[in-house]
Every structure is written in structure tokens, then in C-alpha cells.
Design brief:
By secondary structure, this protein is mostly beta strands. It contains no helices and 11 strands. The chain is globular and about 40 Å long.
């Protein structure tokens, strides 16, 4: 069973940067992609970014495009999310999740239902 463990969250000020890590273990074969999603207080969980494990192709939500960068280290099976110019609206619990197979017609998953394994989340709080 795939296990994902996030780390790197914390309390930062607006304008700061932060890097989240997602260590993956237990894979028996390579998944299609690994993504980051977040859930702000009182809101539904939303897609942030994904990276294809075969070739590093990335996909981002419009709300964070240009500020967040997703990357991978296949040797360590670790996915990173580098976040710059953080704003209070980025406050959320950030989850990494595994996408086993491409979504028909689009490849990258956005909906929660297309991610099969989840980490426990890491909290990011951005103060103004």
C-alpha cells in the first residue's frame, strides 16, 4: 500500500516562502502522477499542482500559478512543493496524493476522487 508523508508546514508571514515535502513509500509500480491539494478552513479541498512521475510534466491550478513550483526526486521518491510570496489566502492543510492512472481525456486529475492514496496533511498558516 502506498504511504505518503508530508512535512514542511508551519507559520509564516505574508510574502515568505516555504517548501513542503512528500515522502512516498510502498509503491509496487510507478504511478502516473503525484499531486498536492489543500483545504482551507471552512472550505472544500482544492487541487493545487501535480507532477507526472515519468517525465516531470507539471500542471497547476490558476490560483497559484507563478508562485508555486512542484518538483520531484525520483531517486528518493519525494515530491516537493515550493511556495513563494505566500498570502493569507494560502492558509490551509496541504495534502499530497497519488494518482495511479491518467484521467481519460485530460491526464492530470483535479477531482479528489481520482487520487487513490493520501497523506495526513501538513498545515500552512500565513499571517498578514
Amino acid at each position: 500500500q502506498v504511504r505518503l508523508v508530508e512535512s514542511g508546514g508551519g507559520l509564516v508571514q505574508a510574502g515568505d516562502s516555504l517548501r513542503l515535502s512528500c515522502a512516498v513509500s510502498g509503491r509496487t509500480f510507478r504511478s502516473f502522477a503525484t499531486g498536492w491539494l489543500r483545504q482551507a478552513p471552512g472550505k472544500e479541498r482544492e487541487f493545487v499542482a501535480s507532477i507526472k512521475l515519468s517525465d516531470g510534466e507539471t500542471y497547476y491550478a490558476n490560483s497559484i500559478r507563478g508562485r508555486f513550483t512542484i518538483s520531484r526526486d525520483n531517486a528518493k521518491d519525494t515530491i516537493y512543493l515550493h511556495m513563494e510570496n505566500l498570502q493569507p489566502e494560502d492558509t490551509a492543510v496541504y495534502y499530497c496524493a497519488d494518482q495511479l492512472a491518467p484521467v481519460t481525456g485530460r491526464g492530470f486529475a483535479i477531482a479528489e476522487s481520482h487520487f487513490t492514496s493520501w497523506g495526513q496533511g501538513t498545515r500552512v498558516t500565513v499571517s498578514s
